Structures are given as C-alpha cells and as structure tokens.
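Progress against Task 2.4 (sequence-to-structure conversion) is shown through the following example record, which the project officer requested during the mid-term review.
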Amino acid sequence: MRLSGRLAAAVEVIADVTDRHRPVNTALSDWGRAHRFAGSSDRAAIGNIVYDIMRQRAVLASMMGSDKPRALVLACAVRLMNITVEELADLCVSKHGPGELTQEETAALSSGMPADAALHVQANIPEWLMPSFEKAFGDDAVRQGRALGVRAPVDIRANMLKTTREKLLNQLSKFDAVEAPLAPDAIRIEVPEGLKRTPNLEAEPSFQRGAFEIQDAASQVAARMCAVEAGHQVADICAGAGGKTLALASAMGNKGQIHAWDADRNRLKPIIARLNRAGVHNVQVIPADEPDKLDELAGRMDRVLVDAPCSGSGSWRRKPDAKWRLTRESLINRGDDQRAVLARAAPLVKPGGRLVYVTCSLLPEENTDQIEAFLAANPGFRTLPYAEVWGECLPGDPPASSDGSTDTLLLSPADHNVDGFFIAVLQRQD
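Structure tokens generated for the chain above:
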C-alpha cells in the first residue's frame, strides 16, 4: 500500500474506534481481516498512525477544530509525520487517498495548535482529569501529561533463573539492546520511528527458552520493592497473567513459596504456561473461584503484593485509547475495587511483615488517597519510607518521587522514562 492508502485506512480504523467505542487493537485486527491484501508492513504502519493519533488526540483535535477521524489523521500527517501541507494535499487526491483537502482543512493544518490551548489540551489528557494531574504534580502537570503522548520503549526482564543480563544483551544485540534504567535485570529496546514495525521479541529463541519476559522497568522495580528473600512466604493476590509473580520467583531463587491468585480467571489463565517456560517451581496458583483459600494464609505471609486494578494511566503510552475511554464512573469503581482488595490483603500479613500496594496509575485517587484511607482504617500498619526500602533491594540511589513524596514512590514517564507506577510499602506492627 502507498502512504495515501495507509492514511485512508487509518481514517477507517479511527472511525471504528470512536463510533463503536472499541479498543484500538480490536479495530486494527478486524480491519486487517477485512483487507487481506494489506501486508504485515502495511498493518504495522497503519497501527503506528492510529496509536500515535490516540496518544495526541487532544492536540490534534485542537489543531483542526474537530475530533472527526479524518481531521485527526490529517493533523497527524502534518504534526507527527512531518508531511508538509502541500505534500499531504497531493497524497489526499492520489489513488486510494482520503480525498481532497478543503480550504478549512488547509488553513487549520497551516496554522497548527492554537497558542492559547487549554492546559488539558497541552497535556493531551481528558479535561475532567486535569484536576487530578494538578493535584499529583502541581505546576508540572502539563509536562507529565505530555510525556504520556510519545511511544514507549520495549523493556524486558532477564530471568535470573536461566540467564544473566549480560548474556541477554549479547543475544539481543541485533536490536541495539541496552541496559534499562532503575531495575538491575532490565534491558531496553527502543521502538523504531515512523511507520516501521516493532521487533517481535516473543519469536526470539531466548524468549521461547524462558530467558526473559517483556516487562516495563517500573513494573520490575515494583516487584523488587517487595524486598523478598529466599524462603519467604509471599502472596500475590492480584497476580493476573503472572508478570510480577515471575519476577518475585526469580528474586527468591525459586526458594520459599509464592501464592498467586486473581479474581479474574481469564487474566490468570496464562500463568501456568509462563511459570513452566520460566522454570519457576515455587508458585502455588490458587484458582480464581477459590478465594477462601486465601483465608488459610491469614497472619502467615512475610510479603503480600497488591498489584491493584486501576485506570492504567501510567501505561497510556502503550494503551493510549484507554485514556479516552476512562470515565468518572469507572474511576470510582476502580477505587472501590482497590479498597476491597486492600481489605482482603491486610489480614494475610504476619506481624513484622509487609503489604506492598502497587498501581500502574498516576492519579492520586488510586494512589496516595487509597493509602491514607487504608492507614486511617488500619492503625496497625505504617508506611516505610521508600528510600529505606530501596536501599534493601535495589542498587544505586533511589530516584525522586514524581509527586514529591518521601514516603511513597511515584515513577513517571516524564521523570524516569518508564511507565507510571505507584509503590507504597506498609509494615504491620502488631
């Protein structure tokens, strides 16, 4: 396909996403099935265009004075793909192109984003979320939001049960792999610019052998901040597909016991295959429909990890359409879920043990607000300053928290070039 056709295809996909309120990956898959003539490079290019648009939708819409699919694609071509207005005009009228530019479109494309654009537009986030960003970041809210509008690198975690970071760096040198920040087992591969495909790392022999997992460096830090030791009894009660479970097992050297559970059986389904591939044998998976088995762990756990369900706002670089699907109601519901899972987790912690609360969110409603409420209701717990915990389990000096806290740690794309993650370590005193 020529670029003109790819732009027209992007208009179709964006229309499917916005009109039917569908996830981008679903809309892209359906488009590919309906257009078998499009090769893998075409599908990748169209996907890059669509995802870039969703990352910067507010800015593009402000530039055009419209959030219609065609307007967004045209603005993306000029602002993000560095196509001149004149070149775009030719592309639009070429075979399979999206159609001739109007005078109004030409004028908007030539003018760019208004200088007086609202703060939420500059930050590329929904207007109703701007107060939350300002509460978390103050005058830095726009910069923090903007950082969510770019492509994220691919991070992987070297599985220390099977390899070392140094060996993996050599094996993945063809991808220009380098050490990722913060996490000692993390490796980073930058995503290509423009319309090129991201490497399919799951096809690599080293992945098939279980030598690594795809996991953002911030997520790896969150697992490390549990400060697990060989022989510990650990509960991971929002285990999902097992990403942090695997990281905990690696840090424990397969010694001790990890009890992995999730309320969603579909999210938990992949965990067995992942454990087997990684060579992990110190994990007991509790079926989703047997939550009562968690009660048997009461007062016995050295560490309880709560990787709480959340908005996912810290990962909007990777799932930008989720930014525009989030609603006030769903955020409230997530808050209810978070309080419920904390209430379930607290009794499992033994005296002197730790509860580690984690979200991939930048929103205080899901982070500091939840911790304040939990501590008020559970005076037997106290917050351990994150720098103190960092010194136990991670190398180097701890990073500054993006929200200025000295108790809890908030990592952000703007400050740390990782996904947004919140980490609070709470110790049981009684």
